[in-house]
Specification:
Number of helices: 6
Strand content: 5-15%
Oligomer: single chain
Structural class: mainly alpha
Number of strands: 3
Largest sheet: 3 strands, antiparallel
CATH class: Mainly Alpha
Number of domains: 1
Radius of gyration: 19 Å
Order of helices and strands: HHEHHEEHH
């Protein structure tokens, strides 16, 4: 049976909001990537991998958990981790608790890279995201982001939650 109902279109204000959000989703990752490539010689995704490991207990995560943290596929993560291994930033080993899994561990060189890279990255995040907003708008942005993520992935957790 064919649905003949008229689509529930966005009103003008909703359309402007949607266009603004799409612009942020498209342009912000590129701006962060450009800063990291220019200042540190790594991509935003590579930084997310290093950063995620730097915050994990013993600087180690299963590759599946690291993929969830970075919002990347296991195949993409595997390629990036192989690249980071060549630079001695990450080491992969079988999980001694369950050999079916692979652990990624941030090396001392990787830790040094995160420590050296973080200040510039944080400054760029602050400049692009937080400085243009009031404290109240920052809280609203957090709440809006959490609500949208709840609709996108109702059972999911925040990407920064290492308990997955």
């Amino acid at each position: 049976m064919e649905d003949t109902r008229e689509p529930h279109w966005l009103d003008e204000e909703q359309q402007q909001t949607w266009i603004a959000l799409v612009g942020v989703m498209i342009r912000l990752p590129g701006a962060l990537d450009a800063q990291l490539r220019g200042d540190a010689g790594i991509s935003h995704f590579e930084y997310q991998v290093l950063s995620g490991l730097s915050m994990a207990p013993e600087r180690t995560l299963r590759m599946s958990r690291l993929a969830a943290f970075t919002e990347g596929s296991l195949s993409r993560l595997s390629q990036v981790v192989a690249k980071l291994e060549k630079r001695d930033y990450v080491r992969r080993t079988p999980d001694p608790a369950d050999g079916r899994y692979t652990l990624a561990t941030l090396t001392d060189a990787g830790w040094d890279k995160v420590v050296a890279t973080a200040p510039g990255h944080v400054a760029e995040v602050r400049r692009l995201v937080f400085d243009p907003l009031t404290k109240a708008q920052q809280r609203q942005l957090r709440d809006i982001g959490q609500r949208i993520m709840g609709a996108v992935d109702p059972g999911g957790r925040c990407p920064g939650d290492h308990t997955r």
